[in-house]
Specification:
By secondary structure, the chain is mainly β. It contains no helices and six strands. The N and C termini lie close together (12 Å).
Length: 70
């Protein structure tokens, strides 16, 4: 999960990207999610799911709380 604590604009970077997988390998980005204050995202993390966070491109901070449930 990720709880965003501040907003970022599209030109500032910091998006969470979720990937489609084929044969347990990432193939293409299927969703870009911009950080929005007070948004809670819950998504599967496993050997067959892939995600990444883009670099923040401006002189700003990206604040978030993240964790995993087992």
């Amino acid at each position: 999960y990720v709880l965003y604590l501040n907003d970022l604009k599209a030109d500032e970077g910091g998006e969470l990207q979720l990937f489609e997988t084929i044969n347990n390998s990432p193939t293409k980005i299927v969703q870009n999610i911009l950080p929005k204050k007070n948004n809670l995202l819950i998504f599967e993390v496993s050997k067959k799911s892939f995600h990444k966070v883009n670099e923040v491109l401006k002189e700003i901070d990206r604040y978030a709380i993240s964790g995993w449930f087992y």
